[in-house]
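User:
Care to share a sequence and structure tokens?

Assistant:
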Amino acid sequence: GYACVGEVIAVGEGVDETWLGRIVFAFNPHESAFVAPLDALIPLPEGLGEEDLLFLPNMETAINFIQDGRPILGEQVVIFGLGIVGLLTTALLTRFPLSRIVALDRYPLRRKAALELGITAAFDPLSEEVLRGLRSILESLGYYQGADLVFEVSGAPGALNQAVEITGYHGRIVVGSWYGRKPVALDLGGRFHRNRIYVISSQVSSIAPELSGRWNKTRRLEMAVEALKWLRPSYWITHRFPLERAAEAYRLLSEYPEEALQVILTYA
């Protein structure tokens, strides 16, 4: 999505001049300058850095996942995918009184970032030992119960079958991944049916119907800003490219994703 943070350099007729010089966020395409209505701008709140505010759209997405998954005290939760959305989701989950939080991602840099948040464990989903390791951690009361709640935010269609494999009886799988045109060969055989597994579609463009009587986009964005204040995620920015070198930024993400967490574009 579009995430732009910049300085107000001019105001239109009838607009309070106190807006001049303010740092604001806008959902706007990649441009060095643009005109926007006031109600499309979110001023930089006190106690938050400009680069932290860049994470607002992805934090709102993470909050949407949490609201759809509804973690319960003492649950065992697994996250597939530790890109920025996965890391933000993981960070929010650490605020809940959960019994275990386990994450999976291919890249050591991302797993390290998740472990620094204080989760139970992080695995490489392509490892031959991953299911054995997950099962040993998700054992409770002396037998394997599986995960109560799983978030699939890896973007990899194959991860959804792994999620089904480790979800316990009547567990929930929140599918936040956007697979696009990639086909998903999902095994809906015996384990899926016997365990009465819920698969929940989650998309940030709307509010869950059960919450829409009390929550709207404005309230969720306000919650996202508050979450950014305590997390201050700008330390996850690994690369900064001037706009003129945007092609290099995309090449890095395409060819060397293991080296990057958050990549941003800067404007002179």
In short: The two ends are 22 Å apart (CA to CA). The CA atoms of residues 63 and 194 lie 30 Å apart. The first helix runs from residue 50 to 53. The mean pLDDT is 93.
